[in-house]
Amino acid sequence: MVKDINRVITGAHYGLRDWLIQRITAVLMAVYVLLWVILTTFLQISDYAALKSLFTNQWMRIASFLFFISLCWHAWVGVRNVLMDYIHTASIRLTIHITVIISLFFYLIWFAEILWGK
To answer: What percent of the chain stands above pLDDT 70?
Structure first.
C-alpha cells in the first residue's frame, strides 16, 4: 500500500552550501583580523598618517577588499536564512531581500571607492 503524501519543500538542498560559506567566510575574516592585529602591533600604527601608509600597499587593499567581500557574503547568508525562517509573507520577504542585496552591493562599491579612490 502506497501512501500519497503531499510534501512541500521550500528552501531545500542548500543548507550544506550555506553552512560551508558561513565557515569559510568566518575563517577568512578571522585571518584578516589576526593579520590586522599583528600589523598594527608590529608597525605601531598610532596615527592617521601611519594607517594611510599601510594602505598604500596593494596587497593590503586587496586583503581588505577580500575581507569586506567575505563580510558581505557572510551577512547575506545569515540575513537571508533568518528572513526565510521568520518572515512568512513572500512579498515582504522579497522586498527585504532586495533591500539587503542592494545595500550590501552599495557598501561593497563604496568600500572599493574608499580603498582605490583618490
So the answer is: 88
